[in-house]
Amino acid sequence: MQGFNMGRYVPPEHEGTLSANKLANKHALGSRARKLSQGILTVRFEMPFPIWCTTCPKPTIIGQGVRFNAEKKKVGSYHTTPIYSFRMKHVACGGWIEIRTDPKNTAYVVTEGAKKRDTGEDKVQEGEIRIKTEEERERLANNAFAALEGKVEDKRQAVTDKSRIEELQRAKERDWDDPGEANRRLRRAFRVERKVRQKREGMTEELKDKMSLGMDLLEETEEDRRRAGFVEFGELGGEGAVVKARSRPLFTDTENSRKPMAKRLKTTKAAAEAEQRRENLRKELGNNTRAVLDPFLSVDKQSVPAIGSTPLIKRKKSSIQDQDRASNVNGTTNHHRAPALVDYDSE
């Protein structure tokens, strides 16, 4: 009968007497137990700390948490606690690394193919208790002065720890003497922060809807305000800006900008000033001429100052008809073009 999610068939005559693994002469752990006769079991081992591989040609570090298929084997015991070794292969260089458990110091020890990376974590930090080894205990037992120094240090540490504990107890009694009042203060502060946060979120949503932004806006910081203060904005409108924009020539002259830099540097200061005056006069005449001739300008032409006093003479329709009659009397035919959309010349 084939069991649920088993994938193996057990004949009816062996059902209940033999398992599928025994019937197929296989171990329940599969290929992981192929060296079980030697006391070796393949397990998934995770590196407990970073190590340096000594087999690689160049110094190579193996980070903490890297996993290997390791051969687990019992190599000894500490009292009644077994000591296991984990032997794994580094695929980068093909070297073997062996790490063993240390029940005595509750740690792992690298015994072959690598060395532990020194990060300073083995040093005793403040508030930690270091377990002394047997050698240190024997040294303290045989040396009276070392034992006395240790007792003095322990007394000093006990006084420091006692003062810290009393300080924590006083802080707890002060802040949590009345739990109801403390809870009320926390809820009041949270309520004020929540209103400010909701108002800020509402302003952000309004700005996103107004600007049609499809992204999340971060909260404004003091750095943003300081950098925004450096920006200077010019005039946003006005009749002067409109007149200046509409009186600008249609095509800018780029002859001066195309002159080589070396040639411009050779000119004297007086020549440069004279050239600048001529250029300014030419641009001003061109701007005023365009302001008078452009039929699409809606600005009042009286507000635009004109340098020349000679007005533009427009051709009238009556003068065109008189010329046609004169040409018919003389026997000549004047093939003039069809009348345009406007009855005056433009640029």
Structure report:
The chain has a five-stranded antiparallel beta sheet, with no helix packed on it. The chain has a three-stranded antiparallel beta sheet with strand order 3-2-8, with no helix packed on it. The protein is α+β, with helices and mostly antiparallel strands and 347 residues long. Strand 5 (81-89) and strand 6 form a beta hairpin. Helix content is 39%, strand content 14%. Helix 2 crosses helix 3 (144-175).
Radius of gyration: 48 Å
Percentage beta strand: 5-15%
Overall 3D shape: elongated
Order of helices and strands: HEEEEEEEEHHHHHHHH
Please state the structural category: alpha+beta
Placed side by side, the strands forming the largest sheet appear as: 1-4-5-6-7
Q: What is the strand and helix layout of this fold?
A:
Blueprint lengths: L19 H4 L17 E6 L4 E3 L6 E3 L4 E12 L2 E9 L6 E7 L4 E6 L1 E3 L17 H9 L1 H32 L3 H33 L10 H7 L10 H8 L14 H6 L2 H25 L23 H13 L18
Antiparallel strand pairs: 1-4, 2-3, 2-8, 4-5, 5-6, 6-7
Compact description:
With about 350 residues, the protein is an alpha+beta fold. About 40% of the residues lie in helices and about 15% in strands.
Question: Keyphrases for this structure?
Answer:
alpha+beta, three-stranded antiparallel beta sheet, five-stranded antiparallel beta sheet, 347 residues, 9 helices
